[in-house]
Amino acid sequence: MTGRRTHARALAERPGDKPLGLDQPIDRRDFLNSTLLASGGLLLGHLTPADLMAQGGEWTGYGGVGDYRNSNGNTAAVMNEAHRIRDHVFDDPSAEAVDTGETFDCVVVGGGISGLAAALFFHRQAGPRLKCLVLENHPVFGGEAKRNEFMVDGHRLFAQQGSTHFQIPFPHSYLERFYESIGMDYRQFKYQSWGGSEREIPLSRSPYQMLSIEPATYGFYFGAKFRQQPGLWLVDPWGRKLEGAPLPSEMRRELVKWHEAESKNTWTPKLPFAYPGDEVSRRYDSQTLEQVMIQEGGLSQETIRTFFAQETAGGFGLGPDALSGYCKFVWDAFYALDDTPATGWQMFPGGNAGMARLMVKTLIPDSIAGPRTLENVCRNSINFAALDRPSNPARIRLESTVVRVEHEREPEKSSFVWITYTRGGTVHKLKARSVVMAGGSWTTRHIVRDLPSSHRDAYARFYRTPYMVANVAVRNWRFLYKLGISGGRWFEGIGNWTEVRKVATFGTDLKAVGPDSPTVRSPSLPGALQGFCLRSSGKETEMSAYKRGGVYWYDFWFRGIRYRESTGLTNKNAATDAESIRRAELAEGRAGMYIGVPFRSSRTL
């Protein structure tokens, strides 16, 4: 290892390396234990990133372990059926469909939080004699509220795919009563304590907590967009008033002034309008968010588009130049007892998948083994065989994509509704006396065949954008601890932030957490990885995948060294992804932080 230590010291002498921690000595143990390893790599040993990607198919990719391993984001099957709906494959009602012979009193289309709630309310109000069926197109229920699971060094880790946290409701409110009805007591949420004798760094309870307050243990990463190569970490950016940030002085001044004003805001928020829909709120709605930020925040257009566009796109799907100015107050309009990052936000270990699991456990008691406790429902496996038993008053049928919903004849004269769905490559149909469409408007307006034109036009005014979440399991996060941070932001490339969080203790065997604890970084790809993707140039960034012997190879140069390797894949797009991962590994090794496979949990149309 002597030669490698010498090489590490030589690398640390290059300009820009010190902010990344490369001036610190790296011994063999530190190097190996600071390696980011996705859990699949730990379980599968010698398999390459390309092998892991191929396991879940070229579209879906690797999905971790456990109940959600086959349902990370929208799978290929879900995407393909959506495209068939788009392409009018099911427009002909006479198309062959197998009649299941079933008639339900209520069918709920969509097994997300809304659909599960609809089934729960129907079951409670109608009683056990009336039958309800939930049709869900994914391999597991939850919709946006699903999770990823990893095994790292014998520890089971969870991370949210989409829906993340919840707020503390008002006492005796409708929401609190609903929480109680599904066995969710938010008072039981206790989080991991700090472990070890080293200086404690505050950790988030959700992926947004430190992002919202950006404390002294937070960092900003500036890459090629700011002419920083290989990159610059600015720790405690607001405490330093952005001193040292590679920004024009006027931009720094704008941002510091804006931040100081924002820091004075307290809960409960003071909204500038009396109620949504009044004259003042409509005036905000008539402007763009960018215009409001310029007028009220004193920010220039350049500053807004540099620092805020990615953040708003992550939450709303659009940049501030296109969003309504009313969006500034959307989150503040949540009517909760406490909606502050520090004390109000609560999170299951796997996000609101925990809430979906509690709802299903309440609806179908045999769906998850054991009593309905937070620990059992979080940790025990789903009994998939119990979900669609004919004896259940409420049932959930998975991997069933609804493609047509229509009355048997004129709506006012109909006594039932035909529901056509695909499952396992076969088209089925069944009857329902009532239907709840609990999916998105972007599909409902295509599926409900006799939807009134007024409703269809209204649905067309809603827009949907793709969103991607990357959950990366790591053996430890000491590489961040050495920088003095637990999270950070970047302002270029895909994604824009990540942070380490502590989890509710009922979902982990690790009651304490420290820099040597395994964790899952989410929700976006690691910052330095994005910096590499954008900052490299010339022959080092041109994708080189070519076919040889029936599989794709790549052939590229990095730091003067040629890398010519087989991906073992027959699909060019997948091979290009494998090449990108290989390049990222090399880049992160150069930066002192080796990145393993960034296992994806993607939510796309």
Please provide a written account of the structure.
By secondary structure, the protein is α/β, with parallel strands linked by helices. The protein folds into 3 domains: 2-71 and 147-194 and 469-603, no CATH class; 99-131 and 352-451, FAD/NAD(P)-binding domain, CATH 3.50.50; 237-333, Guanine Nucleotide Dissociation Inhibitor, domain 1 (Orthogonal Bundle), CATH 1.10.405. 29% of the residues lie in helices and 19% in strands. It is built from 20 helices and 25 strands. The strands form 8 sheets. A 6-stranded mixed sheet has the order 9-8-18-19-21-17, covered by helices on one side. The longest helix is centred in the last third of the chain and has 19 residues, at 572-590. The two termini are 49 Å apart.
Structural class: alpha/beta
Major sheet, described briefly? 6 strands, mixed
As a whole number of angstroms, the C-alpha radius of gyration is: 26 Å
Write down how many β-strands occur, each being a DSSP E stretch of 2 or more residues. Answer: 25
Q: How far apart are the termini? A: 49 Å
Residue windows where pLDDT falls under 50 for at least 5 positions: 1-50, 525-542, 588-605
Mean pLDDT: 82
User: How would you write the strand order of the largest sheet?
Assistant: 9-8-18-19-21-17
